[in-house]
Design a protein that fits this description.
Elements: E1 11-14, E2 17-20, H1 24-27, H2 43-48, H3 53-63, H4 89-93, H5 107-112, H6 117-138, H7 147-177, H8 186-201, H9 213-230, H10 233-259, H11 267-280, H12 293-297
Antiparallel strand pairs: 1-2
Helix pairs in contact: 6-10, 7-10, 9-10, 10-11
């Protein structure tokens, strides 16, 4: 769990209100350049660099830290509250905040909503490798074409699985996670919040950045079952191995795009700025996370705003 209470002298001011940025600069989409303005009023600076509405929502969450924001009571578990937001839900999740959030009253249930990068790697990588090895063993002897060709065929199937993942990632993110739930359905609103809305509401919460292992396992079983409908078991295993490898790459990349500091000119630098714009500028574009390939192909790409300086997120 990340501590959101930071009491140091690293402060900036906005319209007379003080904000401690000692930790926030680590998450700040604009990087550590905010430290160049410690002790200053940044009101004019925000206008100079065309900050989005999301920026001001985050600022408001820092200066107005009442338990109730007019929609939900932040001192209480959120799971029983979001469903009643109705038509206010969409606007609420598009106003990100920098504050702690509790989903469930139960400590055990709350723990299930949090996933670390190490858990993702330690859980999924062995499964991916195991599927690939089992695929190799299950391939019918009469289909063997020699070690080199067998390796090539399995590599091809794994790559196919990787490509399938990138498309699955895009489709789910664009047409499921960003589908507006009916305002008249508290159940669907709550489901949407748990699936993706929570990440847009508290995008700086590293513990809820990655998909929990239990629901992810159910999705993996569904995908494998679908592969098995049109592929033999050994081929389905090889393709699924690639899909899981793609998922791990996606999760690690997603975490890095939020909390890493990529080098200027690198593809990850572009992806970080690209993903930040999805969160804080226009959530109707830029659905690709591990790649912007499908955004380009399916007309949902967004241009990254040019800057006269290089962004850096870590000192």
């Amino acid at each position: 769990m990340h501590d959101y209470t930071f009491r140091t002298s690293q402060t900036v001011y906005y319209r007379g209100n003080a904000m401690d940025v000692s930790r926030f600069c680590y998450f700040h989409p604009g990087g550590v350049m905010i430290k160049d303005h410690l002790g200053e009023d940044v009101s004019l600076l925000l206008k100079t660099y065309r900050h989005s509405k999301a920026t001001y929502a985050i600022l408001k969450s820092q200066f107005q830290i009442d338990c109730h924001d007019g929609f939900v009571d932040w001192s209480q578990p959120i799971i029983n509250q979001v469903g009643s937001l109705g038509s206010n839900y969409e606007g609420w999740i598009k106003s990100p905040v920098y504050r702690p959030l509790r989903v469930f009253a139960s400590d055990w249930m709350e723990m299930q909503t949090k996933t670390s990068v190490s858990e993702v790697i330690l859980y999924w990588v062995p499964i991916s490798i195991g599927l690939l090895l089992e695929s190799w063993d299950r391939k019918p002897t009469e289909m063997s074409t020699g070690t080199c060709l067998d390796l090539f065929l399995h590599t091809l199937l794994v790559v196919l699985g990787l490509i399938k993942w990138t498309l699955f990632e895009y489709v789910v993110h664009r047409w499921i996670f960003h589908a507006a739930p009916p305002a008249t359905s508290p159940f669907l609103i709550t489901c949407h919040f748990m699936a993706h809305g929570v990440h847009h509401k508290v995008p700086f919460d590293a513990d809820r950045l990655l998909f929990p292992l239990v629901p992810a396992s159910f999705i993996a079983l569904i995908l494998y079952s679908l592969y098995s409908l049109y592929l033999s078991s050994w081929m389905a295993m090889a393709v699924m191995s690639g899909t899981l490898a793609g998922y791990v790459i996606y999760d690690v990349t997603h975490h890095f795009l939020h909390y890493g500091s990529p080098r200027e000119g690198s593809y990850l630098y572009f992806l970080k700025r690209y993903h930040n714009q999805h969160h804080f500028k226009d959530s109707t574009k830029g659905f690709g996370i591990s790649s912007n390939l499908w955004d380009d192909l399916l007309s949902s790409s967004q241009s990254v705003d040019p800057l006269p300086f290089t962004l850096k997120w870590h000192d």
